[in-house]
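User: My instructor asked us to take a sequence, write out its structure as tokens, and then describe one feature of it. I'm not sure where to start. Here is the sequence I was given:
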Amino acid sequence: MVPPVPNLVAELRLVDAPDAPPLRAIVRATDAETQVGLMYRKEPLKGDEGMIFIFPDDIDHRFWMENTYLSLDMVFIDSTGAIVGVLDHVPPLSRDSRHVGVPSRYVLEVGAGNAARLGYRVGSKLAMTLAADSTAISGLSQTGP
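Assistant: Let's start with the prediction itself. The structure tokens for your sequence are:
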């Protein structure tokens, strides 16, 4: 697990499109951070930003959208960076459990429709770089709502 670092940001790039602009995602790695995620946020995410959840184990991670006002795409990524599942246009404000039925280490949330626009599909591989960043991503914070 990644220790909490204020404003820790992941930059993600498709391995087969290294010249494409990166997606920047706020990192959520602690239990408290992963429980909150994008809950309560009402401002839409920009097309080049998101939130990535980093977990200590590869398991079939399950998510819900309780208190999440935005429709999201969820991209499930294994420990090698391979995309193992994508859920498109997950409806907001739902307690339904969402998962892809295969183990993943990371789950990336982006605005609805952005996973397809960015070319994120099962079998694609992402490269991720982590860095502390003093600039906010559209008001996302490391500490929650």
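For the description part of your assignment, you could build on this observation: Residues 8-128 form a domain with the Jelly Rolls fold (CATH 2.60.120.1140). Try explaining in your own words what that tells you about the chain.
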